Structure formats: structure tokens, C-alpha cells
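Anyone able to model this chain together with S-adenosylmethionine?
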Amino acid sequence: MAKRNSSLGKAKEAKNDEFYTQLSDIENELKHYKKHFKGKTVLCNCDDPRVSNFFHYFAYKFEDLGLKRLITTCYKNQERDLFSQNDSERAIWLEYFGDRNGNRIPDPEEIGIHYFEGNGDFRSAECIELLKQADIVVTNPPFSLFSEYMAQLMAYNKYFLVMGSQNALHYKDVFPLIKDNKIWVGYNAPKLFQIPDHAEGKNIVVVDGVRYQQFGNIIWFTNLDIKKRHEELILYKKFNADDYPTYENFDAIDVKEVSEIPVDYFGIMGVPDMFLKIYNPEQFELIGIGSGGLAASIGVKKNYRGRTDIALCVNGKHSCPYSRILIRRKEA
Ligand SMILES: C[S@@+](CC[C@H](N)C(=O)[O-])C[C@H]1O[C@@H](n2cnc3c(N)ncnc32)[C@H](O)[C@@H]1O
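re: yes, here you go
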């Protein structure tokens, strides 16, 4: 099982999804995807436009990206004290078709405000109707609903760029999508997310009077093509049995660092999750995951030395919590 980031783990358990993405993190990632947006309708479907930097980014970049339409839907929180507290009785969605008066600023009178019948849940029929109209979905969705969120994007065959926990790489309904090259990992790993004034917990930092929750394992997931997916990892280390031990319960070698993948080995290798950040499907093939039910399905043996969980073992120890992705080089 993947090592669990304690802040994120707690957020998930408490279903506290109220942490907000910084504009600089959106800009840093989106700059790699510009070519995909020309003439497209973008949907941000977990975004209160009053606090969401996703809305801000796309509204201000509308002309630069050549967008056709921007739709932003706002989830109406039932709890009064949450950050995205909605003082209206109903959830809203906004629509923007770009600058009309020539000042290149999204003015209030240029933004259409519509009311939902329901609460703006991304799974509601009203939101799904807007999802159908979108070409690309971009947001930071509630992590507690990540599997459902991803399943919906796949079911409606949408292009997307969304944030999630690195732990999701191991989810039984997410890893198969990665393995089949239907989704992949983006460029950056944003760390600081703005939180409400009253939010408590560990890993809170204050910068210039603004409170942030610090996370260590948030990444971007996408199915938009990106340059790094076609860049070859340069391999230089030679295989030797001491540095690359063989697992005791699966026929593969253990590689501790992605940069140490041997240049002369073409069997199955277990590598850290970080590998997925540099994964180029022209150079490597994904075989599976090293722990849990997905590992069992590819033949990692169970009940190793009395343990009932399933995880790769090397030198009498479980390699997890240093979780592993199983890969194989493609021969040139
Ligand atoms: C991690 S926050 C990110 C907010 C915003 N997208 C951003 O990046 O700044 C996730 C947001 O999803 C909202 N949310 C929670 N459940 C939702 C649902 N079922 N449908 C739509 N939005 C939801 C939460 O209120 C929260 O504001």
C-alpha cells in the first residue's frame, strides 16, 4: 500500500475537501497544455467562482487560449461555516463567452449567472448535462470522491486535467486506467493550498497572513497529450544482482530509484511510484502494481512468511511501504 500522507489521509477521513488551489500552481501546470484549448469549451465543475482560481485563470486567459466557452459550477455546501459557504439558497453555475467590450477583462456583466435546481453536485443530472457540453474538464475535485469523479469523466469520454492524491495511483479503479494508457500523470506536485481561517490540523503554514495546508503528495492526472510523455529516460547503470535483488515472491528485480533503472535489463522491475511522473509508454510497459489485490492478480504470492497481506518482498522484508510499480523496458 502506498505510504499515506497524513494531512491528506485526515482530509479524506473527515471528508474535508475545502482546500483551494493557488493561481501560480494552475499557471505552472497549464502552460504545458496550451495547444489543447483552442476553440474548446472548458468546464470547472467543483469551483465556487468567488474563490476558485481555476475560474480566474480561464476567464483571464480566455482570449490567450482561444477558448470558445467557460462553464463553472459551484457546489452549494450545506454547512454554513465552510470556506465555500454559499449565501444564496441555490447553487449556481456561470458561463463566460469571452471579452465583449474590448477591455480584455471578464466583467460581471459579461458573465452569465444561472441557478441550479439542485445543489451542484458533479454527479447530478444538471451537472452531467453541462459535462456533456464540455470538451475539457479542469479542476481540483474533492479527493474523498476521487474514484467516482474519475469514473464519471471516463464514462462521458472527456478530456481532463485534474488534481488528486498520489495514493490514487494505487486505487483498484485508477491504476488500470494508467496501465492501459488512458490517463497519466502531469508535471507538477503543488504543495500549498489555501484553507479557511478556522481550519485546524497539522501542516498548516501561514504566508503573508494567508493560511495554507501543506501536502506532500498531490499530483495532476490528465489524458491530454504532453511532451514529457514522449521523452526518453536516459539509462546509465548496469545490472548486477547485488544492487538489484530479486523479489522472493515474484519474478522481478527491485530498483530503488527511478534514475537507477538498469540499461541492460529487459525483465520485470519494481520501481517507486515516482516512475509514473516520467513514464514514456514508447520506452516502458506497465505490468502492474506491487501490493494489494492488483498485485495478486498478476501473481504476487500471498501469505509470505505468515503475512496475509500481499506485497513484494526482498531479503526477508516487505518492500512496501516503499510501494512499487512493476514495469518492463520495451526493446528498441
Ligand atoms: C479540494 S477543493 C478544491 C476547490 C477548487 N476546485 C480549487 O481547486 O480551488 C474541492 C471542492 O469540491 C467541492 N465539492 C465537494 N463535494 C462536491 C460534489 N459532490 N460536487 C461538486 N463539488 C463538490 C468542495 O466544496 C470543494 O470546494
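The CA atoms of residues 246 and 253 lie 4 Å apart.
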